[in-house]
Amino acid sequence: MTQPKGFEDNTHLNHVCHLRKALYGLKQAPRQWYNTFANTVITLGFTQSQSDPSLFIYKKDQVCIFLLVYVDDILISGNNLDRIQHVLDELNNKFNMKHLGEVSEFLGIKITKQDNSYFLCQENYVQQILAQANLTECKELANPTCTKIPYTFNCETNLQVPTMYRQITGSLQYLTITRPDISYSVNLLSQHMHEPQPQHVYLLKRLLRYLKGTSKYGLPVTKSDLQLQSFSDADWAGDPESRKSTSGYCSFLGNTLISWTVKKQHTIARSSTESEYRALAALTADVLWIHRLLFEFGITQSTPTNIYCDNTSAIALANNPASETLILPQDEKWPFLLRFTISSFGVSVGIGIQAFLWKIIATSPSMSFLHVSSVIYYVLWCIAVSLMILVASTYVLKMIFYFEAVKREFLHPIRVNFFFTPWIGCILLVVSAPPSIAKHLHSALWYVLMAPILFLELNIYGQWMMGGERRLSKVANPSTHLSIAGNFAVALLGSSMGLKEGPVFFFAVGLAHYLVLFVTLYQRLPTNEALPKDLHPVFFLFVAVPSLASVSWSRIVGHFDLGSRIAYFTSMFIYASLVVRVNFFRGFRFSLAWWAYTVPMASASIATIIYAGEVDSLFMKILSVALSFISTLTCLALVISTIFHAFVLHNLFPNDIAIAITLKKSS
Known about the structure:
By secondary structure, this protein is α+β, with helices and mostly antiparallel strands. The protein has helices at residues 29-43, 81-94, 123-132, 162-175, 183-190, 198-213, 272-296, 312-318, 336-339, 345-363, 374-401, 403-411, 421-431, 435-438, 444-466, 472-475, 481-496, 501-523, 541-557, 562-579, 598-615, 618-647; strands at residues 47-48, 55-60, 63-70, 73-78, 105-106, 109-113, 117-121, 218-222, 228-235, 246-253, 256-264, 306-309. It contains 22 helices and twelve strands. The longest helix has 30 residues, at 618-647. Helix 20 (562-579) packs across helix 21 (598-615).
């Protein structure tokens, strides 16, 4: 101890003030006690933990002892009872200690030992809180909080006193040590301790009534593997006053919950992605701390820790390369080219297959009773060509100015399949071309359009078979049908130009991979990536592949034989099974993904018209007209919706965080 500043006695430098209070009354008393105790245990061979200053670790000759101190309460554990007893004897010689035996309660936490587990509970502490609030006889509730506060409610008079509100809420904060189920509720109540309002008193009483019925709840510590996994979530702009978000995350060591936090974020997040990303960042810091702590306990993680998040945009942002330093806010429009995605080719493909459908209607004998003029499909073909040129030119500009974003799309497990759409669209333009133009097309055009699809297939199919993160069972989703539809489109074009071996080759490759993909998607392996809800229309691509297969095979063999009919009936069954599922048509906003409806419906109509020409059945003719009408009506509705969202609502091309790039890179 030293003389207080301003009261030094220069004549008696070694004298100190006479204490009028106990040692605990001094501000430096806790620090001096901790330093004394820490120096003592260090002399016994312990080392202080770098992750938690209150933890001391002894490791020597296969002996491990862990000592945890909180003020003057000590918990000690290890694998050598003799060495533990020696440590206790040494501490007892230095301090006046009382050995309470095997732990049954520590800092108010009751510890119950079972066969292969421990159970931590604060039942007595809950009863003390209820007695302090005069609610020991209150009625129980099934949940700790409510999503909507009623307009009228009765407040507990005792809890309306601000001092009592602060005392109870402060006590509840300590209760969250073993009760993660009330963490969010306590966090919400703690935000209003300075000036609690009646609604906060109501929520406090509701929480206490919940605790009345769940006082025996606690935290189980079970024997299991020691693999760490963590979960993160965020409530974007959940605070109606400050518009700040709330982060929540937890970590499990095997089956045991070891860390959890609910905390309001310090700044306002401008998007749900930003709030989720901040929660992920906070969880990552906590996971790193847990890793260091586990390492000191001698527990190493052989594999990276899995962190789970329910926001696909935040996951995509977290997977960005480390060179990126800027985040583009979602509430500000990004440059148009950056928002222009590869799925935009779906519009030209949809119009192109409509031109092919109306060409079949105008030229098929089975549909001659409709007396459809060839002018219709000629106009549609011209529109499709114009759209293809416009979309392709725009995307080429994106490749020039935002090549990194294009690269992101190509590496994306879902977007990569849409790189087949430009070439499928070009093939549809060739097969639907008017006779005056088609007769001048050389067969070399087939090789030009075949090459990009073959290149994409070799790249994607190779990744499917090589395994790793891009194996088929990991990345398979309904949009993968686009890569297989490219095979049948190439086979259709080649057979239309009189080629034989090439179309058969692509048909065989497409058929083989379709069977593998169908089985993979049907099993829905647990490793599959979830498809975003906005992409639910691509489920109809299940219909497009067998329909195109039946049409292409009929062109290869020259008639609608048994193979074509099997593929056709398969497509009709899938068509019917999807149409009856109303959930595929609602619950998500309009986007360019809706154009995925056009190819399956038009291809099914084309296959039906060709089949009707073979069987000459009235039913098939009626079905052909009905499917063609549905396909045309769908395409017309999509055209109107696309124009409306593009030029009226101006939201056809929203910000796409999955492929966002930054304008600045770190050195």
